[in-house]
Structure formats: C-alpha cells, structure tokens
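Supplementary Methods. Inverse-folding protocol.

Structures were first reduced to a discrete structure-token string of length 448. This string, shown here, constituted the complete conditioning input.
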C-alpha cells in the first residue's frame, strides 16, 4: 500500500512580528543545512525551509501534527513564542501562496521573493526534502506567485527591498553627483545597483565582491560609470562613497565599525541577513545607518498603492487554495481505493490458487475463472470506490479513516488471514452477472 499522505506543519518568524535580531537567531547558515537537520528527525517525512532577509520559515510533513509541532519548536530554539507564527496544514498551504505572491513581503508584491521561493524549493529537493505533499504545495505557491505578477499590478512601482532602500536614501539625502558602493553581487545587490542607476543622480557606482568577475557582471548591468573591486579594497571604496548598500549572503559582518570612522557623511543601508554592517557605526555623527526596520516608511506607501491589486491576488489565492485542498482530498481517497484493490487482489489470488488446486482445468478454463474473479472484484469495489471519492470531496474523514482500517492489506500472516471460503463455494455464491461465465463442467465440480 502507498504510504498515507502526511500533513504539513509550519512556522514563520518574519518582519510582521519579529525584529531583525530575532530573524537572525532562527536562520541557519544555509537552507539545505536546515532542511537536512529537519529530515534527520524520525517523524519528519518532508521538509522545506525559506530564509530571506526578512523571514525564516520552516515546513515539515509528518503523520501526526503534534510531532510536526514538536520538531518546529526545536527549530525555533530560544526565540520568544510571541515572535513566531505557528501554522497547521491548511494555514501552511495558504501562507506559502501568500509569500510567493508577495503579500507577506515587507514590500508588497516585490519580485525577489518568487525567485527565493524557487531557490528554496531546489535546495530542499537537493537534500531529499520534497515529496508528494510539499511538491504539490510549493509548486502551486510558485504558480500563484507567477500569476500574481503577470495578471495584476501587484509589482508596480517599488518592487524590491533594493529599490526601496535606494528610494529611502534618495528621499532623506542628496545623492546628486556622489559615488555609491554596493557590496555583494547577488540578486538583491543587483537590484539595488539597478535602482541606483534608474532612480538617482549618482555619478559613479562601485561594486565590491569576493569574486570580482561577479561584481563586473553587476557593473555591466547598469548604464552609469562603474568599477568592480574586491573585498580587500573596501576601505578605499567606503572612503570614496557617500551611499553604501550592503547586500551579501555572508555568515558574518563584512565591515567593522571602524571602517566608517573617517568616511565623512555617509548613508549606509544594510540589506544583508545576517547583517553586514554593525549597529555601532551609528555612533559616528557623520554616518546614517538604515536596516530592514527602517524601510517601513517606504513600504507603507507601496502597500497602500497596491491594495487594489492585492485584493485581486487574494481571490486568486482563495481559488488556488481550494484547488489544492481538492487535490489532497483526491490523493487521500486514492490511497484508500488503492488499499481496497490491493487487498482484494491478494485475496482473489489466494482463492484462485486454492480453487485451481481442487479443480482439473485446462488453460482456457483457468482464464475464464480468472476473468470471472476479476469481474467480481471490480463489481464489488465499484460502489465503495465512488463513495470514498464522494467522502473525500465532502471532508468526511471518518469514512476515509474507517475504510483505511478496514481495507489495509495485511494478508501475509496467519493471524490476520480471513477464513477460507473456497471449500464452501457454490454457483449460488456467485453474482448473477458472473454466473453465466462459468462453464458447466466447473459448476458440476463446484456442486460436488
């Protein structure tokens, strides 16, 4: 019998209820590592982890929801319970779709999150975290996220944390003719560089990265004058820049506070998770530092502008949510139906073997009896098959669970084997629709 589908349990620590420090406390060095750790728990069958600059979320599939909750409690560690949102199966499905659609982002509708969900999906797959339940859930979420952006205006305007950071810096400070420094060469850093190019009067752009060719690729993506430098050139780059956007994926700070001691008037926006720039730089009067929490002023405006599109996306999510629930229901019904047919096939095979040992039949006659047995099985199981599918559609899980217990095939042991009825078989025991298929010679042997 196919293993029964488990249920999803989820937990989210995000900007909605947690600070940057609390999100950092939950996040691990890599999503793959987090998934592998969750899969090491005996109760966990599947796992998915999404870690971004403003959220750390984990989802596990277990047979028992309580076991899933216990595993996720360990994942949270010492983080205050008030900062974490715990989700059951249905809440997890809806949350995944809302996240991928950008409705849970600091910047509503931002484009970067859909790529991050895809990356997290691939990370989980690479270590064996994705199977039937999460495959349906995560791929449906990605599909919803893609539709939200292609069919609505949810991503009009400021569409990334990188662009929100640049908008905030430009609003609060004069960037005309200055040099800007972007640290990092990933997706967020690239978006920040493009936002600097499109939204400001910055004259020159420096991109610093450990791998210089990657930094060169970012420089090539913008039209303003630029240069790529290695991380060893950061002191000189900081001295030259008046706007610094830090967006690496390094496990620790890229800068120490003293790097800005003599930098002069500088605007620093730290988008990294964990942080690239220590908070201590704010002690310098000439340095203004912003992190995720400071972006609320920009994102609040964006949120109000996108409310209409968000309402449409919410309806799409409702539709997709119902589709996904129906899909899970059908799978659960199919499990029970599969169990019924497996059990019936085993019993049919055992009874045919016993009957053939008692009857002297040629090959053609054996085929007729086997065909008759198949017909009986199919006719007997057709009504419960239909009933189980109806029960699944109607959320009648008591019927589903009862059927699972009744039909789970376990005919390998003498203790569970039902009594042998072949010795008492007569034509009267066979349905009218199948009786005519029995050759007279066999009926005579049965009567004897």
């Amino acid at each position: 019998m196919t293993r029964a589908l488990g249920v999803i349990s989820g937990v989210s620590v995000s900007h909605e209820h947690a600070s940057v420090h609390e999100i950092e406390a939950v996040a691990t060095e890599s999503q793959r590592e987090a998934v592998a750790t969750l899969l090491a728990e005996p109760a966990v069958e599947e796992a998915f982890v999404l870690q971004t600059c403003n959220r750390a979320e984990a989802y596990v599939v277990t047979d028992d929801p309580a076991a899933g909750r216990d595993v996720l409690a360990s994942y949270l560690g010492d983080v205050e319970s008030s900062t974490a949102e715990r989700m059951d199966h249905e809440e997890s499905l809806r949350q995944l779709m809302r996240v991928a659609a950008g409705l849970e982002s600091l910047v509503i509708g931002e484009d970067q999150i859909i790529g991050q969900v895809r990356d997290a999906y691939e990370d989980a797959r690479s270590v064996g975290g994705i199977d039937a339940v999460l495959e349906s859930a995560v791929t449906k979420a990605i599909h919803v996220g893609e539709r939200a952006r292609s069919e609505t205006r949810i991503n009009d305007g400021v569409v990334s944390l990188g662009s929100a950071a640049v908008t905030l810096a430009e609003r609060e400070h004069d960037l005309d003719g200055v040099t800007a420094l972007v640290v990092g060469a990933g997706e967020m850093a690239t978006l920040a560089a493009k936002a600097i190019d499109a939204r400001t009067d910055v004259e020159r752009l420096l991109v610093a990265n450990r791998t210089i060719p990657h930094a060169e690729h970012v420089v090539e993506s913008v039209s303003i004058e630029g240069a790529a430098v290695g991380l060893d050139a950061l002191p000189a780059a900081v001295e030259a820049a008046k706007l610094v956007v830090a967006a690496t994926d390094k496990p620790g700070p890229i800068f120490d506070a003293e790097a800005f001691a003599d930098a002069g008037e500088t605007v620093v926006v730290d988008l990294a998770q964990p942080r690239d720039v220590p908070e201590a730089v704010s002690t310098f009067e000439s340095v203004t530092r912003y992190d995720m929490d400071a972006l609320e002023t920009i994102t609040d405006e964006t949120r109000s502008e996108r409310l209409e599109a968000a309402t449409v996306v919410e309806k799409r999510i409702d539709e997709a949510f119902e589709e996904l629930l129906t899909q899970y229901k059908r799978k659960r019904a199919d499990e029970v139906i599969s169990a019924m047919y497996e059990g019936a096939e085993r019993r049919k095979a055992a009874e045919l073997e016993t009957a053939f040992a008692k009857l002297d039949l040629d090959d053609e006659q054996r085929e007729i009896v086997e065909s008759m047995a198949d017909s009986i099985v199919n006719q007997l199981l057709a009504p419960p098959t239909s009933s189980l599918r109806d029960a699944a559609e109607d959320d009648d899980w008591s019927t589903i669970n009862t059927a699972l217990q009744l039909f789970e095939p376990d005919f390998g042991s003498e203790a569970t084997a039902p009594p042998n009825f072949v010795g008492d078989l007569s034509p009267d025991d066979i349905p009218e629709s199948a009786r005519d298929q029995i050759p007279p010679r066999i009926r005579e042997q049965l009567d004897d």
